[in-house]
Amino acid sequence: MSSELSAFFNPRGVAVIGASDDPKKLGYEVFKNLREYKGGEVYPVNPRREYVQGVKAFKSVLEVPDPVDMAVIVVPKKFVKQALVECGERRVKAVVIITAGFSETGPEGARDEEELVGIARKYGMRIVGPNCVGVMNTRANLNATFIMPAKKGSVAFISQSGALGGAIIYKTIKERVGFSKFVSVGNMADVDFADLMEYLANDPETTAIALYVEGLKNGKRFMEAARRVAKVKPVVALKGGRSEAGSKAVASHTGSLAGNFRVYEAAFKQAGILVADTIDEMISMARAFTQPLPKGNRVAILTNAGGAGVLLTDQLEARGLRLAKLSEETKKHLRSFLPPIASVRNPVDTTAGARGNDYYECVKTLLSDNNVDLLIVACVVPTFAGITPTEHAEGALKAIKELREAGIEKPVIAMFMAGYVSEESGKLLEENGIPTYERPEDAAAAASALSVFARIRSVQ
User: Fold this and answer.
1) How far, in Å, are 9, 87, 95 from residue 69 at the CA level?
2) CATH number of this structure's domain 1-132, picked from the four choices 3.40.50.720, 3.40.190.10, 1.20.1050.10, 3.40.1190.10
3) Sequence ranges of the domains in the chain
4) Using one digit for the tens of pLDDT, what is the confidence trace for 344-380?
5) Cβ(436)–Cβ(426) below 8 Å
6) Which pTM value belongs to this model?
7) Domains 1-132 and 150-290 belong to one CATH topology
8) Confidence bin at 94 (pLDDT 50/70/90)
9) Is 210 helix (H, G, I), strand (E, B) or coil?
């Protein structure tokens, strides 16, 4: 059951088997990262050291004091089996096996991996891995990996590639994007996508689930879980191994069968999974779900640069969304305060001289129009005439908050395109739950994800 997985994310105590003083070893990074965890004690296990990183070490997990719910095994392959047996005897609930050299290497490694699963079954343990990077729970400062911690956020990310997962985390740190949970599933000897999706469906800290999938060992179980989870929470998947050469690479990477991409794509969509084509698209789509779902696919665009509106329109239309036809009342009110050269047709182009109060009035007016299901607030931040970098964002936020307090809750996506000049605006919007993008294709992907998932939910 998915509740069994809670020990991976909120353990009362953690043992690092293979904790090290050598900065060149993974056991050093894992233990160093876990020392930031405040939810329980973290114990180093190393039979050759009395202390590891200044902390008293234990020769075996059997000597570690209660409670210890999770163990991270990061020792050479020949020692993994014995370490796992001792975890079973110690009644550890959750084990992360970072060590590689199992089913991804061929038949012999696969047999060794099956032996590990048998040990876990005997003692009632769950395993993440082997051949993985580990797990994170950012809200608890739990980083049971050898990579940097992700920023705190509301998207859970499950990756079949540990290194790629780490690269995406580093990328998103730079982009102010956060995660609630991160799991590198590795070879999925035991815990798999289905287990994790079902657990995360009930996680109040997670608004959406992002998957990087190379291959599945139990497609039927995955599909059954996805159908159940999609009724509760959006799932966005990026499939690796689309080409024939890519499929062969998958087999040598995690020991999984990639299969035909079109078959996967059709199955994912049938289960209610949103399919992404790129890493950026996967992240953009998953981030959107801090917003309420739209009632339709009619989008209003507010911009202070006509080109931004044109590019957004192209991207939205390509994804099956359409521009909302603004009411005459809306256009009349917009004309009352915008300059004569502004366009009050959709996209609404305020021109570059618009100030924060103009954005406040426009956002309030557009969200109040019954013909609008979703609003994209686009801004190429001007740096002239005393305009401050954040005033457009501040004006938009003020309007959004006032309307939501009045019971008008429509999704809003922001696109601030001025690079470093937009950074403070983006930070302000993100801190207030408004997903903010720099490129039209990302903002359109987010809008599309909200619209498609709303449609999925409406027919379930």
Assistant:
1) 10, 10, 9
2) 3.40.50.720
3) 1-132, 150-290, 291-459
4) 999 999 999 999 999 999 999 999 999 999 999 999 9
5) yes
6) 0.93
7) yes
8) very high
9) strand
